[in-house]
Amino acid sequence: MAFGYRTPASDDKNLLEMFENFDELSRLTGSQSAAILDLFPIARILPDFLVPVRQQGKKYHEREKRLFMRHFLNAREQLRSGTSKPSCAIDLLRAQKEYGFSDELACYLSGSLLQAGSETTAIILTGFFQAMLVFPEVAKEAQAEIDRVCGDRMPDLNDYPDLPYIRACMKESLRWMPATALGVPHAVTQDDWYMGYHIPKDAGLILNVWAIHNDPKRHPDPRRYNPARWAGDNQNSAQAAVNPDPTKRDHFVFGAGRRLCQGMHIADRSIFLAMSRTLWAFDLKRPVDRETGDDIIPDVDNIKDGLFISPMPFTADITPRSKSRAAAVKQEWSKVAGLLDDEMQWRTVPEGLKWKDYEPLDGENEDSLESLS
Q1: Was 261 annotated as part of a binding site?
Q2: Which residues cross the membrane (predicted)?
Q3: How many C-beta neighbours within 10 Å does residue 133 have?
Q4: Local mean pLDDT, 10-residue blocks, the chain (373 residues)
Q5: Which of 76, 93, 319, 341 gives a 20 to 30 Å CA spacing to 110?
Q6: Co-location of 147 and 38 in the same domain
């Protein structure tokens, strides 16, 4: 989606390079050293050799820029050769001539989509799997709804309106394990007052997502994973995010104000498919301690902190619910595998995507593509 290539395995070199650097940046921005620069802005005028955290940040930034640019230029080569597939980078390349933005801006737009969408979605789903182990009654109710609506057919996006409990699980997962404890800093555009406090123009404000999501006045018994609290709330994330009544906001994972996450509709669809299809096909159960015979229950308070927060690693027993559903999963994979080449990249665009092989725009030729270099 970002640069036009698949990462077929968790040890894919491109994936590891990208996220190892991102993890280092996340660790750095969440460190106490970085926090000092926010608490005491006067320290920002100090030279780099007196601020090691800034030196490290610049190093990771340069590495990140090289990684993004490499993948962006690879997308450009695919565009020229006629082998490109749907991606943000390809759309930006075709718009670059008209709008005149730089390669650096374009590569960062694509890379930011990858960073913002991959890590957060994975964390939300990890939290969901953990919740299914800690609160197994939720998994049973969700599976009952899926079975009632879909039967032996794997859920798809057409089932979204008919699976309200799964939608409630989505909202509860985004509240319960929000991926980001704090939002991205924003600046106040004019002087303001709030509860007797003066907030001067240009002051930085940070949204405390974790505090809002775990406020017992807003969400009673907040550390209990309870999808029923969202009964009757039919808003999707985008609708809730722009609701002028803050009491009607389901969560603040995608930010607040004018600069909301632009990919929340993608996140909603990805999370819905992952949750519904996982529970349709598999049972998620607690592993058993071989010595005591007791269930091993994950500690929901054991959380990895930083720019992104996530559950610490935990174990689970994940088994197919039946032989027929295991066979259905394999059959679906076989259909997709037929669209891939030997390197597990898209040979053919999946049916349903609005895409065709690259054709020059009116008045566009090879020379105009060269001008994008």
Answers
A1: yes
A2: none
A3: 21
A4: 84 84 79 80 85 89 91 89 84 87 90 80 95 98 98 96 98 95 87 94 90 96 97 94 90 87 89 98 96 95 85 96 97 91 83 56 41 40
A5: 341
A6: no
Report DSSP letters for 194-214, one per residue: ETTEEE-TT-EE---HHHHHT
User: Which three-class secondary structure state does DSSP give residue 283?
Assistant: strand
Least Cα distance to 183 among 203, 211, 155 occurs for 211
In the chain, the DSSP E strands lie at 186-187, 192-194, 197-199, 204-205, 282-285, 303-304, 310-311, 317-320
Closest CA to 250 of 226, 276, 219: 219
Instruction: Report DSSP state, residue 217.
Output: T
What are the phi and psi torsion angles at 10 (to 5°)?
-70, -15
Pairwise CA distance, residues 360 & 125, whole Å: 40
CB neighbour burial string for 136-149, b if at least 16 within 10 angstroms, e if fewer:
bebbebbbebbeeb
Q: Are residues 88 and 217 in the same domain?
A: no
Domain that holds residue 354: 1-101+338-373
Residues β-bridged to residue 284: 318
Closest among 314, 310, 330 to 322, alpha carbons compared: 330
